[in-house]
Amino acid sequence: MNRLVSALFIASSLFLVQSCSQPPKSEDTSAQTGHTNEHTKGHGDDHAASDNSSEHDHGSHNHGTTKNSATTKATLTAPAEIKPNEPAALVIDIQDLDGKVVDDFEIFQEKIMHLIVVSDDLQFYDHIHPDYQENGSFEVEATFPQPGNYTLFSDYKPSGQNEQVSVLQAEVSGNSPTTPEVELNRTKTFDDTEVELTLSKPTLKAGEEVTVIFNIKDKASNQAVKDLQPYLGELGHLVIVKNSSSLTRADYIHAHALKDTSDGQVHFVTSFPESGKYKAWGQFNRNGKIVTSDFWLDVQ
C-alpha cells in the first residue's frame, strides 16, 4: 500500500511539473497597430498593416482625447518598399470589428476621408484625401520626403456613426536623418504669410481647456490678412500630435475653428491629455493658397 501511495505521489508531481513548464498561449489582437502578415487580394507583393481605431463625436471642438471605443478597423496596403520622394500607391480598407466591409460613409468637412500623414519625428506633415473606390476601399498616392517611420491618421465617418480615427504605419527605406532640436518659436513666416501663435493661458497644462489663436498677417504690409477663405468648410483646421516614441490614437488631436473671429485671426478650443511636447499644424486658405503653419507646444 505504501508503495502504491508513493507511486501515485511521484506521478502527480511529474504531471504538475510538466504542466507548469508549458508556455502561455499568445492572444491574437486584431486591432493592433503595425504591419501584419495579411495581404490584400489584388495588390501583389504589397504589405498590409492593421490599425488602432477610436471613436469621436463629430462636431465637437476637439477630437482624439475623450473616447477610446471603436466600431471599425482599417488595413493599409502599400508597396513592399517605399522610397523617399517617390509617389507610393496606398490602399486603405475599412471593416467593422467583425471583419465585415464598411461601405457607406458620410461626407464631413467636404470629404469622405481625411488622411493626416506625419513622420514619427514630427518634422513632416501632409493632409490628403483618398478617393473612395466603393466596397470599403480608398486609394491615394502619397510622397514621403525622407527615410524613416511614418504614422497615418485616417479620419472618416461611417453612415449613422460617430467619426472614427484609424492609425496606420508606413516605413520608408533608407537611413533616417538626425532629428533637429525642438524650437518653441511663436512667430514664423511661411512664404508671404507671417503667423503668430498665441494662447489664452500663459502656461499649457494637461487636462485644461485652452484657446489656441493664430494671428495671420501679410508679410509685405505687416497687416492682418483679409483674404482668408473657407478651407474644407471652415476658417481653418488644427491638428496636434504628441511627441511620442510610438504614435497612437491617444497622441492625435483634431480641433475645429471657431466662427466669427476678427480679421486675420483663427481660434481653436482644445485640451491636452498629458504633459509633454506637442507639434501643432494650423492650415488656412489665403485666396486659394493653403498655408500650413507649424509650432511646437510645451504642456506641463
Write the layout of secondary structure elements.
Layout: H1 2-20, E1 34-35, E2 47-50, E3 52-56, E4 62-63, E5 72-78, E6 88-96, E7 113-119, E8 125-128, E9 131-132, E10 137-142, E11 148-156, E12 163-172, E13 187-190, E14 193-199, E15 210-218, E16 228-229, E17 237-242, E18 252-256, E19 265-270, E20 276-286, E21 289-299
Antiparallel strand pairs: 1-2, 2-5, 3-12, 4-18, 5-6, 6-10, 7-8, 7-11, 9-10, 11-12, 13-14, 14-15, 15-19, 16-20, 17-18, 17-20, 20-21
Short characterization:
The chain contains 1 helix and 21 strands.
Describe the structure.
- By secondary structure, the protein is mainly β.
- It folds into 2 domains: about 35-170, Macroglobulin (MG2) domain (Immunoglobulin-like); about 185-300, Macroglobulin (MG2) domain (Immunoglobulin-like, Sandwich).
- Helices cover about 5% and strands about 45% of the residues.
- The protein contains 1 helix and 21 strands.
- The strands form 4 sheets. A 6-stranded antiparallel beta sheet has the order 1-2-5-6-10-9, with no helix packed on it. Strands 4, 16, 17, 18, 20 and 21 form a 6-stranded antiparallel beta sheet that branches.
- The chain starts with a helix and ends with a strand.
- Mean pLDDT is about 85; it is low at about 1-45 and about 55-60.
